[in-house]
Amino acid sequence: MIYIALIILLVGIELFYFKIADKYNIIDKPNIRSSHTSVTLRGGGIIFPIAISIAFFLGYVSWPVTLAVVLVAVVSFVDDIKPLSQLPRFVSHVIAVGLVFYDLHLFYESLWVLPIVFVLLIGWVNAFNFMDGINGITVLYAVTAIISFSFLPTNEASLPLLITMGLSCFVFGLFNVRKKAKTFAGDVGSISMALFLGYFMIKTIIDSGQLGYILFFSVYGIDAIITIVNRLLKKENIFQPHRSHLYQYLANEMGYSHILVAFIYSAFQLVINVLVIYMNTKGYLTLFFTGAFLLILTLIYLFVRKRVIRKMILKNS
């Protein structure tokens, strides 16, 4: 019953936010780099930090993690309304990562571990934020990760938290996983969810001692890294909005449905996650398997990307 009540509460909060966003013109106007064509309410992902705040009051999550997610959410929400410089956003991310480190007792680990985890977590948060480009892709990918984490025995004690965050994704999805979205997550949603997922990935790896679970983020990760490398080779500003992710090519240039592309990404990641969980139960999820599998996925991605770009060129010629 508590989860039914939570769904009703989150739907109510979302609808109330829509009234505020509409009144104060918190909208996302399409531009040349956008994947959408109509004005859409921005910041519907505000229910993600609200959900983790509710989880905190219910005793499902610690105060450092809650504070970290809420901090980046507040700064990101301000940025959604009135763009901020990179400094306050970066500072909020650094403080949030510090809170995550504190919660996971990482400050007691070897000094060489901290900068590696810091760079990976900051990189993940920003990559996840940049991938928020077409209807459904962020929330479906987040749901895929949350469901996958939920199936791991090591996360049994965290199930109430995972269910709470999963329900917030379900509610947001009601208004976003549509041909014409009612709302976008905005930075407030994508960055807060990214931080939560990043925290949970690190927690899962520490608690299980299994680095192979990093493959749960492989589809987004590979797309983001290769896109960044391509943009650097073209001497583009990687911090500026763009339309050069593979999913953007598929949705914008190739004309595939946003929802279809979002489902393809999340479904492909889900299949990978099922394989990862299976391989771990059989004792085959070794560092060698993880590295080899990442290499194979990267080669598959490059092959698909090359074919899509070739088709785009032929289509436009």
Explain the overall architecture.
40% of the residues are buried. The chain has one domain. The chain has 317 residues and is mostly helical. It has twelve helices and three strands, in the order H-E-E-H-H-H-H-H-H-E-H-H-H-H-H. Strands 1-2-3 form a three-stranded mixed sheet. The model has no long low-confidence stretch (mean pLDDT 91). Helix 9 packs across helix 12. Helices cover 70% and strands 2% of the residues.
Overall geometric form: globular
Q: How big is the Rg?
A: 19 Å
**Can you tell me the residue ranges where pLDDT is under 50 for at least 5 consecutive residues?**
none
Q: Treating each run of at least 4 consecutive H or I residues as one helix, how many helices?
A: 12
Number of domains: 1
Number of distinct beta strands:
3
The mean pLDDT is 91
Spatial sequence of strands, sheet with the most strands: 1-2-3
Strand content: under 5%
Report the structural category: mainly alpha
What is the N-to-C order of secondary-structure elements (H for helix, E for strand)? HEEHHHHHHEHHHHH
Helix content: 55-70%
Question: Between the first and last Cα atoms, what is the distance in angstroms?
Answer: 58 Å
How would you characterize the largest beta sheet? 3 strands, mixed
Short overview:
With 317 residues, the protein is an all-alpha fold. Helices cover 70% and strands 2% of the residues.
Descriptive tags:
317 residues; mainly alpha; three-stranded mixed sheet
Task: Please give the structural blueprint.
Elements: H1 2-23, E1 27-28, E2 40-42, H2 47-57, H3 63-81, H4 86-103, H5 113-130, H6 137-150, H7 159-176, E3 183-184, H8 186-208, H9 218-233, H10 246-253, H11 258-281, H12 287-316
Parallel strand pairs: 2-3
Antiparallel strand pairs: 1-2
Helix pairs in contact: 1-7, 2-3, 2-7, 3-4, 3-8, 4-5, 5-8, 5-9, 6-7, 6-8, 6-11, 9-12, 10-12
